[in-house]
Amino acid sequence: MANTQGECAIEDYVASFAERWGTDAATLNGYLADLRGDHVFLAAINDAIRDVPEFNGKQFSDVAEMRVYRVMLYLLTRAVKPRVFVETGVHNGMSSAFILLGMEHNGGGELVSIDLPPLDQRILDQGTNALPAQKKPGWLIPDTLRTRHDLRLGQAEFELPRLLEEKGEIDVFLHDSDHCYSHMMFEMALAWAFLKPGGWVAADNVEQNAAFDDFARGVEGAPMIVSTFAGPDRVWQHGLVDKKVAA
After folding, report:
1. What's the rounded Cα separation, in Å, for the pair 33 and 47?
2. In this predicted structure, what is the pLDDT of residue 32?
3. What is the distance between the alpha carbons of residues 120 and 196, in angstroms, rounded to a whole number?
């Protein structure tokens, strides 16, 4: 349930996640306990941001403070246990860190990321801030998690087709780059062709346009919308749709 500021809680989604991901609430709550109990991870994030002016001295006391979106990605990784997880859009690397931690706790998996630092004003206007001074994409990811990470810098229009052809088949795709309608549809449609049956496409900021809803309708999927914020002053939503296994 959203609080008075419109921020939602991960606990509100555990039951629906369990149903859609083919597991049970007790298992997901166990994964959530693993996440909250990983004090090394929390300390590494706090150490990374401590002296970065853009974080204004913020220090997290609980991973849940890093929002429903990132915790959702951790739980998805734990539940689905992807061999190959592809994402577009890395920025500071907070979301990537949660995916990589899920893989570390699973004991397997590779995250392949494509990113182009946000310099275009059109992208910045979508709500993405410029990287902190002297920082590169993914700078926030703890060093202990980087062995599972393959970061490729460049435009997704060129890098994503190459990556997918190279991998042949992927388990999860996350769109979190340019959120204009045409680019979202391009990425999701391309990734869908390489997504294994039973795999998942996820997208951030689906509130910005109708791309995710239209995509899910086009592939005859059953979309799930998850909110990090759902208030009158701020809406931040994420979409999930799975590729059904043929009967």
Report:
1. 22
2. 98
3. 33
Q: What percent of the chain has pLDDT over 70?
A: 93
Q: Each residue of 129-140: b (16+ CB within 10 Å) or e?
A: eebeeebebbbb
DSSP 50: T
85 close to 112: Cβ distance less than 8 angstroms: yes
Torsion of CA 201, 206, 212, 213, to 10 degrees: 130
Q: Indicate the pLDDT class of residue 122, thresholds 50, 70 and 90.
A: low
Q: Which of 226, 219, 214, 218 is nearest to 242 (CA)?
A: 219
Q: How many angstroms separate the Cα of 234 from the Cα of each of 102, 126, 205?
A: 28, 13, 12
Using the structure block, give the residue that is written with the tokens 């992208």: 123
User: How much is the pTM?
Assistant: 0.95
* DSSP label of 101: H
What's the pLDDT score for residue 1? 57
Sign of CA dihedral 114, 117, 122, 126: positive
How many Cβ atoms are within 10 Å of 194's Cβ, its own excluded? 19
